[in-house]
Amino acid sequence: MVRLNDGRYLGLYHRAEGKGEGRAYLEVMQTLSGDGGFTWSAPRSVARVAGKKPCEPFVFRSPDGGELCCLMRENTHAGYSLQMFSRDEGATWSAPSDTAWGLTGDRHMGVRTQDGRLAIAFRDQAPHSPSKGHFVAWVGTYDDIRQGRPGQYRVKLLHGHTLFDLGYPGVELLPDGTIVATTYLKYWNDTRKHSVVSTRFTLAETDALLRK
After folding, report:
1. Among 47, 110, 121, 156, which residue has the fewest nearby CB atoms (within 10 Å)?
2. Cβ–Cβ contacts within 10 Å for residue 13, how many?
3. Structural domain count, the chain
4. Are residues 114 and 207 in the same domain?
5. Quick one: CA dihedral 25, 183, 172, 211, positive or negative?
6. 3-state secondary structure of 140
């Protein structure tokens, strides 16, 4: 969900026909609220792609405020994730296209840091990734996303002992620049059940790891 320049809220979500992996299709819908979420407009489809199953949208603004970007999980997992852009506050969207390899994943959520970079956490689904199925973060600029570039780097945040069973993260930026990323996952490699786990890091720390 994102606040529009006129004060309304734009919400995006997905709907499906059928259940589980056998769903006939998945599409991304959007709806608007002008009263703080008490009521919402009739939803309309903004992303339905032949041969693909877009879902779990994450929408955010460009640094100059003039564009919206929406990252989407692609639920066939046969390629990369999807992205689309709007320069008219969601009235129209570009046709969904593939993200860069490094942003391929599920359940994206992120923040813009003080230096303008983005830190986006998600469940890794990038083809042939050594951290596939675990909780990772992508670090780069908005222009990297817009131009389909790989970004600066990715970092594995947490290891899940049940592969792929994690995500739906919350990501917050604290005043001192610390990023807090929270997810559920199988943290313990024993009979204990899943936990809700937070990890804290700064880009100064992860930048330093890159230089080693």
Report:
1. 156
2. 13
3. 2
4. yes
5. negative
6. strand
Domain that holds residue 9: 1-98
**157 lies in the same domain as 181:** yes
Closest to 179 in 3D by CA, of 152, 206, 160: 206
Question: For residue 35, which amino acid is it?
Answer: D
Buried b (16+ CB within 10 A) or exposed e, 55-65: bbbbbbbbeee
CA–CA distance from 55 to each of 26, 42, 52, 199 (Å)?
Answer: 6, 19, 10, 26
- Amino acid, res. 211: R
Question: pLDDT tens digits for 75-130?
Answer: 999 999 999 999 999 999 999 999 999 999 999 999 999 999 999 999 999 999 99
pTM, rounded to two decimals: 0.95
* Whether residue 5 sits in one domain with residue 28: yes
